[in-house]
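Students often ask what a 'structure token' actually looks like in practice. Rather than answer in the abstract, let us consider DNA-processing protein DprA, a protein of 381 residues. Its sequence is given first.
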Amino acid sequence: MADLPFDLADVRLAAAAWSRIVESPDPAAGALVAELGPGAALDWLCTVADGRHDAGDPRWRQAVERWAPRLHRLDVRRELDVLDRLGGTLVVPGDERWPGGLDDLGAERPFALWIRGDPAVLRRRGVAVVGARAATSYGQHVAAELAGGIAEAGLSVVSGGAYGIDASAHRGALAVDGTTTAFLAGGIDRLYPAGNAALLESVAKAGAVASEVPPGSVPTRNRFLARNRLIAAISASTVVVEAAWRSGALSTAGHAAALSRPVGAVPGPVTSMASAGCHRLMREQSAVCVTDAQEALELAGGAGEHLPDGRAAPLGLLDGLDQVASRVLDALPARGSAPVANVARAAGLSVAEVRSALGRLDLDGRVGRDGSRWRRRRGQS
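Now compare that with the structural description of the same chain:
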């Protein structure tokens, strides 16, 4: 196999190449790139695929067999030329414009984002509004009203650009001149679904259209499911407006819950199959009932200054904390209390660091002393 025709030391080219090579999410590829960096990881892959180096562990050999076919005639500069013609932007981890929420995905973090529109929009605090493609008029109305209220409060509305609830959410944000982001399952040169092409063009002008796969990539079922993790990770919270019992929107809610992002659901008529998934989320997964934009803003946390009546929403658990204080508060049990030594072990910090952080958190009203033990104050769960 010939060497790749571009500079592997160029971090942006190498990261873009990994977004072409790997069918995400692929934790093995994510771990390799995180350990070696995109350029060195790509060089290692080429040497193993060429037989110049042995992968060693059978699991790595299997991974190479999975990735190697896409090395054939790989030249990511072609996709970057398409991106340039679209007036788009490539953003990779480490860039100042990289949305930090995606880092919570760990080894399943995307290797790059291909963006049409303003990359800065992806760093704004946002709320995901998602739901069924086969939405009812009730669901479409509620989605538009929620999105409009969220956008008017200064937050971004995040969705998937699909028919039904997604489209209504984007339209609701655009109607109040707000910002919105659509994550696509395919390349940003193929605005999909075609029936929403004009809407997605408007989204790109007012906000951003983004994808983790390069231009030319076709949307597949796996990619639709994979992009749901990006919608969840980039958003402060997720609200499901309408969803059938096995709707794909429940996948987004599941990713949000796994990332400790709040999940809300809009109730519908008990006789409506279109709302069965929302009722299931509230019944089985403790999703918060959301009936208007203000409740959606409260769910996002830390957005009190945006609420229309000036009433403060509760801070997110770790909002406004430095890294040490964040780890200490996160290490305290959600219920009950713990001694300093236990907190230090759970947080991976020294006892002195934990004592200092607890003192600051106590002054902020986030923790309290329980004899020789410490606990979170009410509301910090």
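One point worth highlighting: Residues 304 and 311 are 6 Å apart (CA to CA). Ask yourself how you might have guessed this from the sequence alone, and why that guess would often be unreliable.
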